[in-house]
Structures are given as C-alpha cells and as structure tokens.
Design brief:
Helix content: 10-25%
Number of domains: 2
CATH class of the largest domain: Mainly Beta
Strand order of the largest sheet: 1-2-3-10-5-8
Distance between the termini: 18 Å
Number of strands: 10
CATH architecture of the largest domain: Sandwich
Radius of gyration: 18 Å
Structural class: alpha+beta
Largest sheet: 6 strands, antiparallel
C-alpha cells in the first residue's frame, strides 16, 4: 500500500490542509509533506500521531475506502476478523471496517506459557483508554500498576489502561478472552 498517497487521499477527502493536519497532529508541515511524497516512511507510532489529527484509527486508515459510498458492515464472520496480534498471541479485531469506531473490540487467544507483549514479559503497555474484558476459557495473569491478578474462565476486568499494564499466560493451558477499549486505540 502507498501510505503517502493514502494519507493524501484521506486528508483531501476530509478537506483538511497539510498545514491544518500538521497543527492538529503536533508535527511540522514538512513532515506531512514528506509522508505524502513517500520521502519518509513513518513508524507506526508516528503514523498514529498523524492520523489522530484527522481523526481516524490505524485500522480505518488501512481498510476504509475514501471517495466511494461504503455500505456499513454489520456481521463479521470468523474468517473476516483481522488478526492484529504479534508473535504467538492472536488478537482478532471485530468491526475492522466500522467508520469512526469509538471502541476496539478484540477476541484474544494466548497459547500456554505465552506473553501478550511481543518483545518481553516485562514490557508494560499504556493506552489512553478504558479497558474491560471477560475470560472465556483458561486463566490469564493481569498486571495493572503494581497489582497482579489471576483471572479464570468467567472472571472479568475493567481498568484505566492509562496505567501500566500487561497480560501473560504463564499457565499450561490456552486462554481465550474478549476485550474492549474505549476510545478505540487501533
């Protein structure tokens, strides 16, 4: 996918100038220009920052069509769910093509002895959102700040995900959860 052309198409479709987008995203005008000309390839975090100025999510950026009338999808079959997980953890996104999504809804599968964070079992995540979920099967270790919780099938959680947190499955069985964050961060 041509990220620069895509950004320009979305920006012009939304009737936002390069200068205005740069101001909203907290970057320079030249940054927007260089991305649109493909002079630079932005990191995911940089692209998220720019897209926040539109505002659209990463998933919308890569899945929505601009300039065409879109029929809003209501039902998502299992084979249509986008796996945005990394490593051995699968995170299937429900509602990938929903326009201007206000929540991220995921079905997560953690194999036995798996870390949710791809790089390290010690990495803590932070998102500017609220997160809630339900354990469908197995057990999961949830760390929020300095507190560690062990949740089993039937348990649920809800917390301010601006606090450092992580999910791990150090157990000898697969764990499956459903979770939602609002506002959407993907």
């Amino acid at each position: 996918m041509d990220v620069g052309a895509r950004l320009k198409a979305i920006r012009t479709h939304k009737k936002i100038s390069q200068r205005e987008l740069a101001k909203r995203a907290g970057v320079t005008n030249s940054t927007i220009s260089m991305i649109e000309k493909n002079s630079v390839s932005p990191s995911i975090s940089s692209l998220k920052k720019v897209l926040h100025g539109i505002p659209i999510s990463l998933v919308e950026f890569f899945t929505e069509e601009y300039g065409n009338e879109i029929v809003q999808q209501v039902i998502y079959r299992q084979e249509e769910l986008m796996d945005i997980g990394s490593g051995e953890v699968h995170m299937h996104l429900v509602g990938k093509s929903f326009p201007r999504r206000q929540m991220t809804f995921l079905i997560k599968t953690y194999p036995a002895n798996a870390n949710a964070n791809a790089n390290s079992s010690t990495e803590m995540l932070k998102n500017n959102a609220e997160e809630g979920g339900y354990i469908l099967d197995g057990k999961i270790e949830l760390t929020v700040g300095n507190d560690v919780f062990i949740l089993s099938a039937g348990d649920s959680y809800y917390f301010d995900s601006n606090k450092p947190h992580r999910f791990r499955n150090p157990f000898n069985q697969l764990c499956k959860t459903i979770s939602a964050t609002t506002p959407a961060y993907l």
